[in-house]
Amino acid sequence: MRRPVPRSPALCAPLLVALVLLAGCRDGATTQAGPPAGAPPARTPAPARRASRPRPVKPVPRAPVRAEPVQEGPSKGRRIALTFDADMTEAMLGELASGRVTRWYARDLIKTLRATRSKATLFLTGLWARTYPRAVRSFARDPLFEIAGHTWDHLAWTPSCYGLASVDTEAGKLSELRRTARILERLSDRPPRYFRFPGLCHAQGDLDLVAGEGEQVVDGVASGDAFQSDPGVIERTVLDQARPGAIVVMHMMGGPNAPATAEAVRRLIPQLRDRGYRFATLTELLEG
């Protein structure tokens, strides 16, 4: 039988260190080596900063939506609202594509409003907004203008409305409203507050439907500018109907459907101001 060889202290020291380290790793604990000699002390990591939350946007107060059309505003202050419809139908898009019409956008009209600092509310169909998105974004940035809805493709909501093709189901009408609201909100960063029926044709059920979507129907007094080639006729019609609180209905497509509106507006603005009128958006007129 061999006698055990005695181990020297030099051999036992490494074994003792290993046993200590193994004991420290028990139950999943870990031991990290310290920094090397002469190294600067490790910095304590700063606590993670909380991501700043965006401040909630204070909603703009709105007047209650009524299931009846607004015909005019209050007469105080001698304010008047110029409103312009931008019609666009599938047939009009076809004329644009074929080159029979170069554009359905009266740029001269918008230039006149801007040059004279005249406020206005623009009722846009969804097809018009889709065709001229840069213009819609420009209107949304301009404090002179307010954007409103005018259906998707200018379908009438009643069967007999100036010969317009019509939509006759509730689902179809809701689609007209919602598609238009979506594209206007996407281009302007805000949903439309007001809505106008093509031809101002509507039944009570239609008014209820629009009010249920949170939009206020607005009619007004017709200028007679549709298909009118004589700006003098439009000029006289508007001046005859002008009164404090009036909401004037005109068009901003230009082309063969509203060929004289831009010139009529150029003449009307100084005359209305000479009579003491101030131009306002619909919100300013109705809620100011």
Overview of this protein structure:
- The chain is an alpha/beta fold and 288 residues long.
- 38% of the residues lie in helices and 11% in strands.
- Strand 6, helix 8 (231-241) and strand 7 form a beta-alpha-beta unit.
- Helix 3 (107-115) runs parallel beside helix 9 (261-274) and helix 8 (231-241) packs parallel to helix 9 (261-274).
Helix-strand layout with pairing:
Layout: H1 9-24, E1 79-86, H2 90-98, H3 107-115, E2 120-124, H4 126-131, H5 133-141, E3 145-149, H6 170-188, E4 194-195, H7 204-212, E5 216-217, E6 221-222, H8 231-241, E7 247-251, H9 261-274, E8 278-279, H10 282-287
Helix pairs in contact: 3-9, 8-9
Strand proportion? 5-15%
Structural class: alpha/beta
From the N-terminal CA to the C-terminal CA, the straight-line distance is 113 Å
User: Shape, please?
Assistant: globular
The helix-strand sequence is HEHHEHHEHEHEEHEHEH
Supply the number of helical segments. 10
The value of Rg in angstroms is 35 Å
Q: What's the rounded overall pLDDT mean?
A: 85
Q: Which segments are poorly predicted (pLDDT under 50) over 5 or more consecutive residues?
A: 1-49, 51-60
Largest sheet: 6 strands, parallel
Total E-strand runs: 8
In percent, how helical is the residue content? Answer: 25-40%
